[in-house]
Each structure stands twice: as structure tokens, then as C-alpha cells.
Amino acid sequence: MTEHNSVFDEECMNPINMPLHVLFHQVIHMQMQYMSRLMQPMDMKPGQAAILFVLLKKGAVSQRELADIMQIKPPSITAALQKLEKRGLIERKLDEKDQRVLRIQISEKGRECLMSMKSIENIVKTQLYKGMSQEEVLLFRRLMIQMRENMLEVERFEPPKD
Questions:
Q1: Is the CB of residue 38 less than 8 Å from the CB of residue 120?
Q2: CA 124, 66, 45, 84 torsion-angle sign
Q3: Which helix H or strand E contains 104, and what residues bound it?
Q4: What whole-number distance in Å separates Cα of residue 102 and Cα of residue 115?
Q5: Eight-state DSSP code of residue 97
């Protein structure tokens, strides 16, 4: 390795010079690690908590609908659902209108579990936004929403057909 490469690498590792996408990735990774550590005594992973939250907000949904909402491939969600069902945090019920469809819903025990995780969410948010004013947090949110919208434009873009 040349001296020039070494200096360049050190400069890139400084958060001030780090590419924004790398910084985003690091913050999200660190936040998920912290949340996982706090959730460990509850034997819960952030992805499982996210499933419970979606079910709380959306009500009973099919596995495919849940996968679509969470933007995860259906087979990837299967193992998490099995673990949640085994712990009694979700229930599977046949759809009243179409008996071929199995609906997944949060159980009462799942609701209670989410309520106890509220304090973990607050601890993580407090740590994440420490040193920021409410105005800075709101500005950051607005900028993130704008970036999300910008990327959704690309997602929706379809190249012209020849």
C-alpha cells in the first residue's frame, strides 16, 4: 500500500469526509445493533418487532401482503412468522370470505409485547437524537423524506421500450 492510499483511507474513515451513503449505512447498522442488544432479554429481534408493529397497524393480512408491506420476499418472512407464532405473539386465521387464504394477525400477547418495547424505542431515539434540537430532528426528517421521494421516482421510472 502506498502512503497516498493510506492517507486517502484515513480521510475516508473520518465521518466528515465519509461518503454519505456509507455514513447512512453505519448509523442504521449501529442503531439496529443497539436495538438488538436492548431487545435481547425479550428474545426479540428488530425484524420480528417490525412485523408485530405492521400487524398492529394494518390488522389481519396474508403472508404475501405482509411481505409486500415490509418489502421482503415471502420466503424470507416465513421463519420469523413461525417463531412469532410459536411464542403466541401472532395468530393465523382463515379468511372469512376466502377459506383458501390464511390471515396473520397480532395476538393479545403480541400487543403486550409491543407495549413493553415502547421504552426500548424511546431509549434508542433518545440516544440517536442526542445533541440535536427538535428543529434539527424535524429538518433531518424532512430531508430524509425528500431523499426517499427522489429515490421512489427512480423506482417508478421505466425506460422507454424500443
A1: yes
A2: positive
A3: strand 102-106
A4: 26
A5: S
